[in-house]
Fold this sequence. Notes:
The structure is a single chain. Helices cover 57% and strands 8% of the residues. It is an alpha/beta fold and 325 residues long. It has two domains: 4-159, 3-Layer(aba) Sandwich (Rossmann fold), CATH 3.40.50.300; 202-321, Zinc Finger, Delta Prime, domain 3 (Up-down Bundle). The chain has a five-stranded parallel sheet with strand order 2-3-4-1-5, with helices on one face. Strand 2, helix 5 (86-96) and strand 3 form a beta-alpha-beta unit. The longest helix is centred in the last third of the chain and has 21 residues, at 236-256.
Amino acid sequence: xxxxxxxxxxxxxxxxxxxxxxxxxxxxxxxxxxxxxxxxxxxxxxxxxxxxxxxxxxxxxxxxxxxxxxxxxxxxxxxxxxxxxxxxxxxxxxxxxxxxxxxxxxxxxxxxxxxxxxxxxxxxxxxxxxxxxxxxxxxxxxxxxxxxxxxxxxxxxxxxxxxxxxxxxxxxxxxxxxxxxxxxxxxxxxxxxxxxxxxxxxxxxxxxxxxxxxxxxxxxxxxxxxxxxxxxxxxxxxxxxxxxxxxxxxxxxxxxxxxxxxxxxxxxxxxxxxxxxxxxxxxxxxxxxxxxxxxxxxxxxxxxxxxxxxxxxxxxxxxxxxxxx
Length: 325
């Protein structure tokens, strides 16, 4: 189970724990977050809290069974996040009316609940409206809007908040032991622990950080644009990451002019200071807006070459028009 300390300190976990402590556990919860990895870990921790006599110790036989997926009363469904059809839900509904074997209650954790077809959701709805006694459902979703209003009205929503850069840094540093890796992951993850974990495992992010600085330093005139566009960082699978990294870099450039703390800490700190000496605050603000605008174009399948060229030419023009005094 990943990110235990951070998740146990989250408002989402505390909300479920309060329900458990006060005997006010709902028959169904919808856990909502774009971070599917953290959602699964939150569901595991919540299951431990409900079934463990020691408040979710993680060590007793009941906890071990849940974590190893062999507790007969705690069923995890669709962990591979595939489409959930009506017959899949029918199996869950049929099983839910069977009496508990071990804990006096039963729990069904439906991962990727937004992958349920409309027919499947309607099939589950009938059970949510008239739930069997001592049966609890966790619906995990990264897309709340994909759930039927009628389903949403029958569950208690728990939203998992994004985490601060400090929390993400600490979790990744504990796992990797690398301050640079943790800094990059914390800066690029948007507060999502699962995304941070993937970033930490991908050396490409750190390389793209270095590439982004190199591009910005070598971008001094319009004739520099064409050679720079030939770099691998501008291919589609890397370009989205580059835009994210450039946004973070320019936000750090703004901070570097003041007394704030950089997103990347000591990593690439000197390069941030060099850029801060070249770009005015007005220019940085306009460039961040430009990056966001170009990201939207990429999302709508505008040619990535055209987007990249417009980005670099735009940065040059803004830098020239908003010279640092």
